[in-house]
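Fold this sequence, please.
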Amino acid sequence: MLTGATSGIGEAAARRLATISETLIVLGPEPEEEVRQVLRQIRRLGPADVHYVGADFTHLSHVVEAARSIRKLVSTVDLLINNAAVPGAPQRITTTDGFERTLQVNALAPALLTRLLVPSLAEGARVVNVGSSAHHVERFHFDDIDLEHSYSPVAAYARAKLAMVTWSSLLAEELRSMPVGVVALCPGLNDTPLSAAMMGRIGGPPAQGAARVLHAAVADVPSGAYLEDDRVGLPSADATDPSNREQLTALYWERLLRFAATGRER
């Protein structure tokens, strides 16, 4: 299962996965009719039975509905790739849920989706979380987590990826008693719509980033590892700071618990 699959690195990864999978569930923010051509191209590439689930991560209720749809489609998930992301917007945007958009889409929504799918993870499953080396350039500011007072597009993106990388290792700790692995990675600089929105047309082809994502899916590394350039690296000091980890856990519980509870009702 792959989120953010209709463009950029996600689309490139979906094309690869379609050639080696029996069943592939791809998520994107668009209605299915808007991405029908992309889906047709992915389906033509291999034997995978490809299903599309539309989910706009700026609405956490859509994440809940997506998880329900996925559980109806398959009984177990062998690989969950949390790739969906947005760039920091030129001006601060708040979602209908009341949270800064970049943080919600890039960090909160993947955590909620994963939480709802943990009971469906197969033995030996892996969760791959696409982070960014950009997380090294920012720090947590829990007193202004939604950037009400100090917004910039780069800070919004980097702080959201810092939350993603930190949460990934927290998830690994939580699931350590299960036969499930969790890996985060930086896919490198790739010429995608996301990077173009923030930095212009620079970087390698999306297929390059997709290859790193798929490497993380099978790499022989410890659960909780963070990869850069396909090698285990060190996340930032902020990501490993015990106080930050405790505060991030509390933030996620505060913001996601009611949605997680709703998602388990059916």
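The chain has nine helices and seven strands. Residues 153-174 form the longest helix (22 residues).
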